[in-house]
Amino acid sequence: MIVPMLHDEDLNAQLFSNSPVLEELMLSNCYMMITKVLHISVASLKRLFITNSKMYSCKLNIYAPNLQSLTYNGMPEGYANTEHVFSSVVDAHIDITDESRANKNSKRQCGLKKLVEGISSVKILHISGSTLTSFFWGEMNQMMPIFHDLRRLDVSSKLSRCMFYALLNLLLKVPNLESVVIAQGFSSSQNYHDLDTFRRRECVLQQQKAVEVREIDGKHEDLDMIKFVLRNSPALQKMTIAFLSGLPQCRRDRVTKKILMLPKVSTCSLINFLA
Question: Which of 62, 142, 157, 196 has its CA 20 to 30 A from that of 111?
């Protein structure tokens, strides 16, 4: 079901009361004409997709006790939820826009806080780079909850220096994380030489058993990041390296040799190179 614009709360209630077996719902640029609050109460709902924009957005109050998957794209404008509303969610896909981070609107800060609290019990989290920096922008840095149940974290964007530091800060909030996937590698022309400052803090990669880094072409930023992971992951069992498509074989061979020579703290870890 796709819901665009609703004019009043009575229509809203009638719509969802007539959908007792609804399992999948997509809310795309919803806008409430009068109450400004969209109430969703569907016990059977399992998959929820939400897209908000600067022009079309509304406050959301969601009750879905059996929800398993949440996808959120856009700006968390005045987002609201009831307590423990997403406690059943297993995986979440979150993409917060850069504009949301740049805007210091208190409603958006509150909305982002509520959204993060709502997904704090997920086991699998897929996030963009802009979401990472939004998580640790301004007051959000002090309001981040602990993700005790999170086991796998996938980052979809190519990571800039700012995004990678935000990732390290997030890892401090994920004590039981086992697997990290960085899907597009690291940005060029970034200075990562002060990464060792994190070694003097609580180990941010203490529990990682598997790390996968994709789109690697062997630039020094790639090697700096891989070196950091290998030196700070005592529980690491497997690191997977996927090279950039089209990278010449001779280049792959040189990079592979450099990576295999990097020091690592885990004596039982393997490095796997994908073709």
Answer: 157
Q: Which residue has the higher pLDDT, 165 or 262?
A: 262
The pLDDT score that the predictor gives to residue 127 is: 94
Whether 198 contacts 204, CB under 8 Å: yes
DSSP secondary structure string for all residues of 146-186? P-TT--EEEE-SPB-HHHHHHHHHHHTT-TT--EEEETT-B
pTM of the model: 0.83
Q: Which of 107, 108, 87 is nearest to 99 (CA)?
A: 108
Strands in 47-51's sheet, in edge-to-edge order, are 2-6, 24-32, 47-51, 69-74, 91-96, 124-127, 152-155, 179-182, 210-216, 238-243, 270-274
CB 169 within 8 Å of CB 197: no
Q: Where do the DSSP E strands lie in the chain?
A: 2-6, 24-32, 37-41, 47-51, 59-63, 69-74, 91-96, 124-127, 152-155, 179-182, 210-216, 238-243, 270-274
Distance CA 185, CA 244 (A): 9
